[in-house]
Amino acid sequence: MIPSKKYYLLLSSVAFAIMILLIVIQVNWFSSTVDYQKKETHQKLKQLAPLIAMEVNGIDHNLFHGQNILVVDLPREKITNKIDSILMLHGFYGKVYFAIYQHQSNGVFLSNAYKYRKELLSSDIKSCISDIVSFSVVKDGTNKREGESEEEYQSRIYGESSFQYFSPVKGLRQSNDNDLWISLYQEQKLSDIMITLMWQFCLSIALLIILFGLLIYLLRSLAKHKKMSQIKTDFFNNLSHEFKVPIGSIRLASKVLRQSNNPEKNHSYHKIIEEESELLEKQVDKLLRISMFESEFSQIKNQELDLHEIIEGIPEKLKILIERNAAKIEFNLGSNQSLIYGDKEMLTSAFVNIVENSLKYSQEGVCVYITTNDDGEQRTIRIKDDGPGIDPRYEEQIFDRFFRANQGNQYKGKGFGIGLSYVKSIVEGHKGNIELVNHYPNGCEFVIEL
Predict the structure, then answer these.
(1) Under CATH, which number does the domain 195-291 receive?
(2) Does residue 53 contact residue 213 with C-beta atoms inside 8 Å?
(3) Most buried residue among 10, 45, 76, 235 by CB atoms closer than 10 A?
(4) Mean pLDDT of 284-293
(5) Span 188-197, mean pLDDT?
(6) Contact 359, 349 (CB under 8 A)
(7) Which value, in Å, is the radius of gyration of the alpha carbons in the chain?
């Protein structure tokens, strides 16, 4: 059993829902990864802050532990280079800003980014330089000299020491506004790792969209296959019916002729055989057209021809059908330039097909109006009838090959559903255009531009 259109629509909806869900998962993954990276970077900087404080303190311990520290005395370049080297050593290649400061209003504030003063002062990534003490190994008997101040003594033994060691000592004293702090701040921008993740994210989204597109293409192909399979079934049903009716009539008429000696009756049945044979021949001719459907249009014979002459010859070609349906064809040929270039046989066949459809699918007494007019270099031909028109549901499919609009009763009309498709191919083969102007339920109109 071939799945229905609703089945394919349901599959498409499910596929779309899954794609949206996967995109949401990808977005959530990317967001979580970015947050995790930010937290990890923040934590690494917090762990690195005490080491940076000790390394900066090691530049000149006495300088950072003096009573009246001044910004101008701090070796800014050395401090910057020292901090940058430590950060690079630990894998921080993005810009990280620092500040050395005191909390008092007129205290020290040294930074490599004064525009982030507020962020640096409020940063929780910090370490107190004032909590770092110095341990020195000096010679035995190195005592304080007479008249030597405490600062002079500390400076002397520091210079004479053979080994110094710095270490933060917590709880050594109560913190106060004179304490010297070092803080770090990194602006919240995507790092190189985040940029890599962004590419991975975009690539995964692109692949999902491509996958969804391929799925939709597959579903459409399956739906098209299903449609073509149904068209094929309808075609063979129509083919069987179109051949069965005339063959049945011929067989019946032959039986009657074999048993009848009435000349008038025989003449009547001979006529039936002749008409049904002609109908059968036309159907076979249509099947031959199908086999040559594509190749015919590569052999268009362009020659000068009279458009009005072709149109005026339509009634003669449909004489029997016009008489049978008591139909009329009226002309209003207003084109001032009726000479065109094209294939006379093909264009005649196209116009005849349209008028024939109007006669076959309309009630008795139908009138077909054919008009021509000029639109610059183009010739516009309008073929309009006052029949029932075409159900709007079938407008988009009316030019599809093998399609027949009377789907509710597929044997009601005659033909294989190739007429209008054949007409459209001929018109487009002549670099023209054809469209349907539907006046349902009061007829329809075909507009051809050549």
Answers:
(1) 1.10.287.130
(2) no
(3) 45
(4) 65
(5) 59
(6) no
(7) 48
- What is the average pLDDT value for the chain, to the nearest integer? 79
Select the highest-mean-pLDDT range: 57-61, 115-119, 169-173, 237-241: 115-119
N-term to C-term CA, the chain = 45
At 448 the three-state DSSP class reads strand
Q: Two tokens at 333?
A: 């040929």
Find out whether the peptide bond into 441 is cis, omega within 30 degrees of 0: yes
pLDDT value at residue 172:
47
Helices 5-57, 192-259: axis angle to 10 degrees equals 170
**For residue 45, how many other CB atoms are within 10 A of its CB?**
21
Residues 6 or more apart whose CB falls under 8 angstroms from that of 219 comprise: 8, 11, 12, 15
Q: Find, among 368, 302, 370, 378, the residue nearest to 338 by Cα.
A: 378
Return the domain boundaries, the chain: 5-137+146-189, 195-291, 298-449
Contacts of 134 (CB under 8 A, 6+ apart): 61, 158, 164, 165, 166
> Which residues, listed in sequence order, are joined to residue 374 by a DSSP beta bridge?
379
Give the burial class of 434: count Cβ atoms within 10 A of its Cβ; 0-12 exposed, 13-18 middle, 19 or more buried: buried
Q: What pLDDT sits at residue 293? A: 55
Q: How sure is the predictor about 59, in pLDDT bands with cuts at 50, 70 and 90? A: confident
Reply yes or no on domain 298-449 having CATH 2.60.40.3710.
Answer: no
Q: What is the pLDDT of residue 411?
A: 37
Of 160, 116, 113, 112, whose CA–CA distance to 136 is shortest?
Answer: 160
Contact 411, 238 (CB under 8 A): yes
How many whole angstroms separate alpha carbon 257 and alpha carbon 270? 8
Read off the pLDDT of residues 199-247 as tens digits, 9 standing for 90 and up.
777 777 787 788 778 877 887 787 777 777 777 777 777 777 777 777 8
Same topology, domains 195-291 and 298-449? Answer is no
Tokens representing 366 are 């139908």
